[in-house]
Specification:
Layout lengths: L1 H21 L2 H9 L3 E2 L11 E4 L4 E3 L5 E6 L8 E5 L6 E3 L8 E5 L8 H4 E5 L5
Antiparallel strand pairs: 1-6, 2-7, 3-4, 4-5, 7-8
Length: about 130
C-alpha cells in the first residue's frame, strides 16, 4: 500500500511538473500580456494571470476540438480540468511573446468558479 501511494505521488509530480515550471513566465512576458484582449472584448492580464503553456497541456479531443489543461485559481484552487478553447478565448489584440509555446490567461476577474470558466485567453504557438 505504501509503495502504491509513493508511486502515485511521483506520477502526480511528473504529470504536473511541467505546469509548475511554466508559472514564472508571466513576469518575463508581462509587457506583451498587458495589452492582450480576447474576442469577447475582455482584458486578459491582471498582472499574474498569463503564462506559457506546457506542450503536454494542449490536446485535440476525439471531435477535433482544441483543449488546454487548466489549474483553477481563487475559488477553484486545487481543481483542474481539460477545457475546450472557444472562439472567444483567442486574441483580438496582442501578439505572442515568443515562438516557443502557446500561452494562456487564467483569471477570477470575470467570476469563474471552475477552471474552465476561468480560462480567459489563449494564444496558440505561432505556426503550430
Amino acid at each position: 500500500m505504501r509503495a502504491a501511494l509513493s508511486a502515485a505521488a511521483l506520477l502526480g509530480l511528473a504529470f504536473t511538473g511541467g505546469a509548475f515550471a511554466q508559472e514564472d513566465s508571466h513576469a518575463r512576458f508581462h509587457s506583451y500580456y498587458q495589452d492582450w484582449v480576447n474576442f469577447a472584448g475582455d482584458a486578459c492580464c491582471n498582472s499574474s494571470d498569463c503564462r506559457e503553456l506546457a506542450p503536454e497541456h494542449e490536446r485535440t479531443d476525439a471531435n477535433g476540438n482544441l483543449e488546454v489543461y487548466v489549474r483553477g485559481v481563487g475559488v477553484a484552487f486545487g481543481t483542474a480540468a481539460w477545457c475546450k478553447v472557444l472562439p472567444r478565448h483567442y486574441l483580438r489584440r496582442g501578439n505572442a511573446p515568443n515562438w516557443a509555446s502557446s500561452h494562456v490567461c487564467i483569471s477570477t476577474w470575470y467570476g469563474g468558479n471552475t477552471p474552465c470558466e476561468q480560462l480567459v485567453c489563449y494564444q496558440p504557438k505561432p505556426g503550430g
